[in-house]
Amino acid sequence: METISQDVLAGAYLIASVSYILGLKMLGKPDTARRGNTIAAIGMTIAIFATIFLYSENGNPVGNKIFIFVALIIGTGIGVRAARTVQMTQMPEMVSLFNGMGGLCAALIGIIEIYHTQSTEKTKLLAICAGLVIGTISFSGSMIAWGKLTGRFSDKIFPMQQFLNLGLMTIILVMAGAIIFSPIVNPVMLYMELLLCVGYGILFVLPIGGADMPVVISLLNSFTGVAAACAGFLYNNMAMLTGGILVGSAGTILTILMCKAMNRSLTNVLIGAFKASGPKEVESDSGGHIKEVSLSDAAVMMSYAKKVMIVPGYGLAVAQAQHSCHELEKALEEKGVEVRYAIHPVAGRMPGHMNVLLAEADVSYSKLLEMDEANSEFATTDVVMILGANDVVNPAAKNNKLSPIYGMPILEVDHAHAVIVNKRSMNAGYAGIKNELFYEPQTSMLFGDAKKVLQQLVSEIKAN
User: Fold this and answer.
1) What is the largest CA-CA distance in the chain?
2) CATH of range 295-463; options 3.40.50.300, 3.40.50.1220, 3.30.110.30, 2.40.440.10
3) Closest CA to 427 of 318, 296, 295, 299
4) Known catalytic residues?
């Protein structure tokens, strides 16, 4: 009977693993992402219940089922409520918070299991220490990222930040080696290691600010995946191992892509303090002046255009104006205007933030152009409407060698015939630097809250 149960359990893990792979594959396309997420969630549910009812060790089934189900109910309730009530502007914070909880879980597994592992089982001790170190760093780093995204923490760069981070990581690795090869578990050394990992996670994320935050979120997500994979290896749980490997590898690939999009090296990400070693920015001597455009003039420009490109940014999310943006799109299309959206890979506060935002407003996925495709169309675009985007359209990335964002691939909106920038004020973007686009001769500023401005634009366009 026990053999049959174990065979069924193995089959359930196989089904769960396949569902993770299929789900991740479907997440690669906006029109299948929701279905892919559902498939992966079903696979995870199968793995959880199969483990609770079929797993056994030395003939002993899983105990404390009442406590397990109480915890599942509480956790599910919190998760569902958080997911249903979170605003689009708060999505990055929620991702960081949930990711931190995953890292904490992996660290707790390591703390518990290290006392049940023989000193001769070096492979298991290696997996435990790896999960404990990576999980703790992911937890503390994610909490700092959550605090910075919510405005609770500000950027803080310490003297010799990179050397401090490298030195601390070296000590962490040396102590992990000592724990693995020690004949007995030394509680003092174990908890010193935990404190050092917490400290490294804090020092790693605290200096990072500006447009670099999407890179950090992606990297911390990959850390949590690797920590989960270590736990899967420890328990010989194929579903956990597969899921962890997929999250870790996908997060790493995404991190590399984000680094490329931000013109950062992965080494620089791992060391931390992106901006600590960069040159001081020197403002461009464009000497231009900004010019404003009225709502009625902006409406006329867009109504008589052949092609309009909309560039969404974090300001659109702050104003919760995604639905009004979709209304503008429909109003223009009724007048025969071709409307597309140009999406920068790191627009917003996390990878894919703008895609999620526009999907909530039922914007067609076929109208979302990635950066390279959008850049090839700006030269034939009559009007570009920028809604709350800043650093991702800043020509300083191409023109100013001393700018912190120099070399960063941007949306080349300055190639369009006319550019309308909607902002609340002339304040700098998240990277804290001046935007040279605002002073270009083809650029006009349309100040005001994005939602209110878009609603007024729609009324003006329909009245023309």
Assistant:
1) 82
2) 3.40.50.1220
3) 318
4) 391
